[in-house]
């Protein structure tokens, strides 16, 4: 919970070493959630995020093959 809270309040505190398209860039997430959210709202967001499963667990089916572009 502390890690999530700090990541919301200080988004640049922990940057992943690798991102899908390039290096992970700082300042992508707004830096002012500490001013935008009340303490109660922040607790609610953290509690919600703690209930989420990892992306690998959430995706249990494979995607269909790519379809050709529509002609028309």
The main sheet comes to: none
Cα radius of gyration in angstroms:
18 Å
Instruction: Report the span from N to C terminus.
Output: 52 Å
Summing up helix and strand content along with how strands pair, one would put the structural category as mainly alpha
Number of helices: 4
Provide the low-confidence segments as ranges.
none
Shape estimate: elongated
Number of strands: 0
Helix and strand run: HHHH
The averaged pLDDT comes out at: 84
Range of helix content: 40-55%
Please state roughly what percent of the residues sit in beta strands, choosing from under 5%, 5-15%, 15-25%, 25-35%, 35-45% or over 45%.
under 5%
What does this structure look like?
The chain has 72 residues and is mostly helical. The protein contains four helices and no strands. The chain has helices at residues 2-9, 33-36, 39-51, 55-58.
